[in-house]
């Protein structure tokens, strides 16, 4: 007698179909491969989706952060307050501008930057605040707007994991200057790519200049910029993906709700009243034996990931550069307990049930 082994369930699975392939071929046939008409059309579509006047496409989420910071005049001598609980690009984008990342602790409820901790960290060198909408749950953006307005600071939203997330009826990326990533594992992809969203005409103008070698007129370089441009190939993929984003987000939310209802022995993600969590990650918290649970899940055919095992302020390069001399107990505790489970739209109901049953079995629930 033979048994059929269950297919492995990966932590993420990019969805790219025939429509994206046709769109890419159209661009290849057009002869316009670099930033052109398709990029402009994608920018208009994305701005309309987020609810901002402008969207400026770039070639990665990291580029979006750097260009947005530079467009707000962030540079040497400035400080930017941000979260220690994120991917390292949140901090290295600040360092790349010559500025200093200042880490404030996070809210244990949703693992987002805590506005009260930010207020306590403001100095006369603070230029901007950069909250991260972690895992697809929006940060408390309205409170950050108030903090920034009271102190004359720029608000730059790291929305790289929050395509379609909402806080009190408004989409992430519409409160300040939003920065999104289109890396393959995000809620939508362009292969690689990013985009900046803003209502500020001057910020939008500077973003467009900085992403194109600092030139507003061809070969007249009045500002410092580099090649951060998006290709029309990437933009063509993005246009198709954006049309499917809401359906995929609804599938993620449905999968997350099912997982939360089935899991019994671990702490499931919390969603603040009035917010929309789009579950880029479904991140549980495991009080004991997190690393052993991950190994056992792998053996049982369930992928998982630790986002993030080391807070940014404890990363070797950050400490080496002298930016990590701070104690942030909530972020440090979170790094020891978090574990992300599959939640992507490719999961069927039987996959969700298997993931939950496997976690329950392995944790003795």
Core attributes:
seven-stranded mixed sheet; about 375 residues; Aspartate Aminotransferase, domain 2; Aspartate Aminotransferase, domain 1
What is the fold's blueprint, element by element?
Elements: H1 18-30, H2 37-50, E1 54-58, H3 61-71, E2 79-82, H4 89-96, E3 100-103, H5 115-121, E4 126-130, H6 141-151, E5 154-158, E6 166-167, E7 170-171, E8 177-181, E9 194-198, H7 201-210, E10 215-217, E11 220-221, H8 232-262, E12 275-276, E13 282-285, H9 290-299, H10 316-320, H11 329-335, E14 338-341, H12 349-362
Parallel strand pairs: 2-3, 2-4, 4-5, 5-8
Antiparallel strand pairs: 1-9, 6-7, 6-12, 8-9, 10-11, 13-14
Helix pairs in contact: 1-8, 2-8, 3-4, 3-7, 8-12
């Amino acid at each position: 007698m033979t048994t059929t082994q269950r297919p492995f369930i990966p932590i993420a699975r990019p969805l790219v179909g025939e429509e994206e392939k046709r769109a890419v071929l159209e661009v290849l046939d057009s002869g316009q491969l670099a930033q052109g008409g398709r990029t402009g059309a994608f920018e208009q579509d994305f701005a309309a989706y987020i609810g901002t006047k402008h969207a400026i496409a770039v070639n990665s989420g990291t580029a979006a952060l750097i260009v947005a910071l530079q467009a707000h005049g962030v540079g040497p001598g400035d400080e930017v307050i941000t979260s220690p609980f994120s991917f390292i690009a949140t901090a290295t984008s600040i360092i790349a501008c010559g500025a200093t990342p200042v880490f404030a602790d996070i809210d244990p409820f949703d693992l987002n930057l805590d506005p009260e901790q930010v207020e306590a960290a403001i100095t006369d060198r603070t230029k901007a605040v950069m909250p991260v909408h972690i895992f697809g749950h929006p940060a408390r953006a309205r409170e950050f707007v108030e903090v920034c307005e009271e102190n004359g600071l720029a608000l730059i939203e790291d929305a790289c994991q929050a395509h379609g997330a909402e806080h009190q009826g408004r989409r992430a990326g519409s409160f300040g200057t939003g920065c999104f990533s289109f890396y393959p594992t995000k809620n939508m992809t362009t292969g690689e790519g990013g985009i900046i969203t803003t209502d500020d005409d001057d910020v939008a103008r500077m973003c467009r200049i900085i992403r194109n070698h600092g030139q507003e007129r061809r070969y007249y370089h009045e500002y410092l910029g580099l090649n951060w441009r998006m290709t029309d190939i990437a933009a063509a993929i993005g246009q198709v993906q954006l049309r499917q984003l809401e359906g995929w987000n609804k599938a993620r939310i449905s999968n997350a709700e099912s997982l939360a209802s089935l899991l019994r022995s671990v702490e499931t993600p919390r969603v603040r009243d009035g917010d929309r969590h789009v579950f880029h990650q479904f991140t549980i918290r495991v009080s004991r034996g997190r690393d052993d649970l991950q190994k056992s899940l792998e053996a049982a055919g369930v992928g998982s990931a630790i986002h993030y095992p080391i807070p940014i302020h404890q990363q070797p390069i950050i400490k080496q550069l002298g930016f990590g001399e701070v104690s942030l107990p909530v972020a440090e505790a979170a790094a020891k307990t978090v574990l992300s489970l599959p939640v992507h739209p490719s999961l069927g109901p039987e996959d969700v049930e298997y993931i939950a049953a496997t976690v329950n079995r392995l944790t003795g629930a």
